[in-house]
Write a structure and sequence with these properties.
By secondary structure, the protein is of the alpha/beta class. It has 4 domains: about 60-205, no CATH class; about 235-290, no CATH class; about 315-385, no CATH class; about 400-460, no CATH class. It contains 13 helices and 15 strands. The protein has a 3-stranded mixed β-sheet with strand order 1-3-2, with no helix packed on it. It has a 3-stranded mixed β-sheet with strand order 10-8-13, with helices on one face. Helix 1 (about 55-90) crosses helix 3, helix 1 packs antiparallel against helix 4 and helix 2 packs across helix 3 (about 120-135).
Length: about 475
């Protein structure tokens, strides 16, 4: 949208921003909640501002300058990352040894710790930096000049992946870069995809085959005991999955009968209370957790039959025993006491504390091992159905014997370590302990004992020597 000032007497309108002869002060008294004058108007796609909005225009102009400065710093960071990655992989440092693979992984781990991100995030940043700087230097230069944002560079590079020829890639880069100067990254993506399709030397089928290899499933914690479950699958399968879930949701809603509301309270009396979105979600979870792969012995997924989900839930003893729905559960106002507990696979008694409200007991919420809190009702239901409960004593004065004389830890020790660690111990890594290896800090071949303080869970990406 094009913004304009309302013209003063004897002046024509000018574009939003600071005129060439206007000096932007270091600090402008911009009001906390500036209001537009009564004579502001919208004409076509131009917004006319009333008198006095010059200060707002100056502030907006400063944000543009700040964004340009940020782009320059981001471009410098890309160059530093790319140079460092190439330099280390070429064996130019003694710090990480001579093995290029180990050196690069060690560099990623050190950078991740320094930047307070996971090693996988830092690995992607290094890979992107090398790709951007090597394959799309003009886009990185435009970022440094403040003509585009990092989002534009990423779109150009991602959609240019099918183009392997350097000359064709340079032509594609320039064509899309010209468009990027006056459009958003979201809109640029569609243009870049078409531009790459006309200049790439691979067919759509070949691009699909390559993209198909990137299919995956992931989980993203969104807080409050909820997570997002996502899948990258072929479009035809995704549409088919959604259509089947929708049909099932409609059938369930229809079988429940028409919805009837209580005229006095407005509450639902009959009919299915869940929306289609809620029904589709519940159905997807049930099918994924209880369904089985094809039972034919020749089927490629036959080995997956009979495997059930396994999770570890940490439930404080008093929370497990509490059945009063009026009792508050809060992780912030808790006086931690001696750790003796019982729960699903594990639990710990962290005691109780008195909350800020008089007469209201605050209990620590249950947690999914290595993740975050879950609601107490779900935790109690899991505990009731659990095949076994493991008591976990976490207080150091208990003297729990968890040593082993062999290289491989005992089942009891493995279970304790899984519950103690919860996740990969590489700083920033969130991979659950069940998907990691138990590794000796001091190698067993050099005398390292198989005891808790010398063992930790590390995923394959975090096993650094």
């Amino acid at each position: 949208m094009e913004h304009m000032f309302e013209p003063s007497a004897g002046e024509g309108p000018h574009l939003l921003g600071v005129p060439a002869d206007h000096k932007v002060p270091g600090q402008s008294p911009i009001p906390a909640n500036p209001t537009r004058s009564a004579d502001s108007a919208v004409a076509g796609n131009a917004v006319l501002f009333g008198p006095g909005d010059e200060e707002a225009a100056a502030a907006i102009a400063r944000t543009v300058v700040i964004r340009q400065q940020m782009g320059a710093l981001q471009a410098q960071e890309l160059h530093e990352f790319a140079t460092l990655a190439v330099w280390v992989r070429a064996g130019n440092t003694e710090l990480y040894g001579c093995d290029p693979s180990i050196a690069h992984r060690s560099l990623v781990a050190d950078l991740a710790a320094a930047h307070r991100v996971s090693d996988r995030t830092m690995g992607r940043r290094l890979a992107d930096a090398e790709r951007f700087v090597t394959d799309y230097p003009a886009a990185v230069a435009a970022l440094e000049d403040g003509r585009i944002d990092l989002g534009h560079v990423r779109v150009i590079a991602d959609h240019g992946l099918p183009i392997q020829d350097d000359t064709a890639r340079a032509v594609y880069e320039q064509v899309v870069l010209d468009k990027a100067a006056d459009t958003t990254p979201g809109r640029l993506g569609r243009y870049a995809q078409r531009a790459a399709a006309t200049r790439g030397e691979v067919t759509f089928q070949q691009r699909y085959d390559q993209a198909y290899k990137q299919r995956r499933v992931w989980v993203h914690d969104i807080g409050d005991g909820l997570s997002e479950l996502g899948m990258t699958v072929p479009t035809v399968l995704a549409e088919g999955i959604l259509d089947r879930l929708t049909q099932q949701a409609k059938a369930i809603t229809g079988a429940a009968g028409a919805r009837t509301l209580d005229p006095d309270t407005g509450d639902l009396v009959t009919g299915e209370p869940r929306s289609y979105d809620q029904l589709r979600t519940d159905l997807a979870c049930e099918l994924l957790l209880t369904g089985q792969p094809t039972g034919c012995e020749d089927a490629p997924h036959h080995a997956g039959i009979g495997i059930r989900a396994e999770i570890a839930v940490v439930i404080p003893a008093l929370t497990l025993l509490n059945t009063d729905p009026g009792t508050d559960t809060d992780a912030t106002d808790t006086d931690t006491g001696a750790d003796t507990s019982t729960g699903t696979n594990t639990a710990r008694d962290t005691g109780t504390g008195t909350g800020t409200k008089p007469g209201k007991v605050r209990l620590e919420p249950p947690t999914l091992a290595g993740k975050g809190p879950i609601d107490p009702a779900t935790a109690r239901r899991l505990a009731a159905d659990a095949p076994r409960l493991t008591r976990l004593l976490t207080h150091p004065v208990t003297g729990m014997a968890l040593t082993a004389d062999t290289y491989r830890p005992s089942a009891k020790l493995r279970r304790f370590l899984r519950l103690r660690d919860g996740r990969c111990r590489q700083p920033g890594c969130t991979r659950s302990a069940g998907r990691c290896d138990i590794d000796h800090t001091i190698p067993a071949e050099t005398g390292g004992p198989t005891v808790p303080n010398n063992l930790a869970h590390l995923c394959r990406g975090g096993l650094l020597r």
